């Protein structure tokens, strides 16, 4: 009887890890389909934990080959999606049965303050698409000499943690905290409000973040992290969104390198944010096996790392290129990790699970 339950546990472990890695590898589609010239974001930011605020200076360098209109250039300010409870983000939460954001205290919302926009070093006029201020249009007064460089300076009051942005119990999440160029396709700007469980549609970009912190934190990101002159320099390549998570204490973590059939490898981390019954036995070998199967079907992994954060409620769930946070429910054991993955992206998981199951 004991051996029977051991076999069931091994099957459960295999299925769970297959879905976990599958979920992040589903970004192969978006990561490899965009062959357009790369945008470059150069961001300087300083975190003030006393006031839960981050000061941001973000310079966007737009290549001419993108062929965007040069009258008004549109950007997403998705941090404003968390600034009120009368918007599309809130409606999405309510449709999923979550009322916590709708009823949260006004002090726990985000707020962008003192925003200035510079074009070629000179202050420029801008407009918002609507009262929600999730889309900002930069007006180009001198179209003929526009060199593709636009800079945004502002202060962002962070919300209480929601959807990968904000603060909670000394930890900080930085996602969707800087302006992103709206995708231009079919001769029109593809403007849409932000939603937590929708796939991001935008440009793969190179992003360089210099982040000043007031103390010592453990950082996780989908970019490469280096410390230079006491400043955290984080470089993300070929991604749609740079995400940085800062923990003020040490979490339980399993880390290693995934080695692919061509000999290349990337670092991976499984990080537990709460106590669970999750067991690490055979985990690494299973991750290697699943990654190898996905490589055979999908080709080279397009990102520099793979990180899975496990825990907290789904209010904190998010997915970015190469990094994801999921919720586990009930007794927080391995079997419920499976349902956390499905809750985040069930249709994509089902689509990609079929060939992998046949292969495995």
What do you see in this structure?
With 360 residues, the protein is α+β, with helices and mostly antiparallel strands. The protein has two domains: 128 residues, 2-Layer Sandwich (Zincin-like), CATH 3.30.2010.30; 167 residues, Sandwich (Immunoglobulin-like), CATH 2.60.40. Helix content is 22%, strand content 34%. The strands form five sheets. It has an eight-stranded mixed beta sheet, with no helix packed on it. A five-stranded mixed beta sheet has the order 19-20-21-23-22. A hairpin with a 5-residue loop joins strand 19 and strand 20. Helix 1 packs across helix 4. The chain is globular and about 60 Å long.
Order of helices and strands: HHEEEHEEEEEEEEEEEEEEEEEHEEEH
SS strand fraction: 25-35%
Under CATH at level 1, the class of the largest domain stands as Mainly Beta
Alpha carbon gyration radius: 21 Å
Let me know the number of strands: 23
Would you identify the CATH architecture of the largest domain?
Sandwich
* Straight-line N-to-C gap: 26 Å
Structural class given helices, strands, pairing?
alpha+beta
Low-confidence parts: 4-11, 27-34, 331-360
Q: Report the total helices.
A: 5
What's the CATH topology label of the largest domain? Immunoglobulin-like
- The largest sheet has its strands arranged as 5-4-8-2-1-14-17-16
Sheet bearing the most strands, described?
8 strands, mixed
Q: What is the overall silhouette?
A: globular
Task: State the domain count.
Answer: 2
Residues in helices, as a percent range: 10-25%
């Amino acid at each position: 009887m004991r051996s029977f339950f051991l076999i069931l546990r091994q099957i459960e472990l295999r299925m769970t890890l297959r879905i976990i890695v599958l979920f992040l590898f589903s970004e192969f589609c978006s990561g490899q389909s965009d062959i357009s010239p790369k945008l470059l974001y150069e961001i300087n930011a300083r975190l003030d934990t006393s006031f839960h605020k981050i000061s941001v200076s973000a310079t966007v360098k737009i290549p001419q080959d993108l062929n965007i209109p040069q009258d008004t250039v549109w950007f997403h300010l998705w941090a404003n999606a968390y600034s009120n409870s009368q918007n599309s983000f809130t409606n999405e939460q309510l449709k999923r049965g979550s009322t916590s954001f709708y009823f949260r205290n006004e002090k726990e919302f985000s707020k962008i303050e003192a925003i200035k926009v510079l074009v070629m070093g000179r202050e420029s006029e801008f407009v918002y698409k609507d009262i929600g201020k999730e889309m900002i249009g930069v007006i180009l007064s001198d179209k003929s000499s526009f060199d593709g460089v636009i800079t945004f300076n502002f202060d962002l009051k962070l919300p209480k943690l929601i959807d990968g942005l904000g603060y909670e119990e000394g930890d900080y999440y930085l996602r969707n905290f800087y302006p992103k160029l709206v995708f231009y396709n079919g001769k029109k700007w593809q403007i849409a409000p932000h939603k937590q469980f929708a796939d991001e549609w935008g440009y793969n970009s190179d992003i360089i973040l210099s982040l000043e912190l007031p103390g010592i934190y453990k950082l996780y990101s989908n970019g490469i992290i280096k410390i230079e002159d006491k400043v955290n320099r984080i470089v993300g390549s070929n991604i749609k969104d740079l995400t940085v998570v800062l923990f003020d204490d040490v979490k339980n973590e399993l880390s290693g390198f995934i080695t692919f059939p061509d000999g290349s490898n990337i670092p991976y981390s499984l990080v537990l944010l709460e106590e669970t019954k999750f067991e690490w036995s055979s985990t690494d070998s299973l991750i290697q096996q699943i990654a190898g199967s996905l490589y055979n079907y999908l080709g080279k992994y397009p990102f520099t790392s793979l990180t899975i954060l496990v825990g907290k409620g789904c209010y904190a769930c998010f997915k970015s290129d190469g990094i994801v946070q999921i919720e586990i429910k009930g007794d927080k054991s391995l079997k419920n990790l499976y349902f956390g993955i499905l809750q985040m992206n069930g249709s994509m998981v089902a689509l990609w699970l079929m060939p992998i199951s046949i292969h495995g």
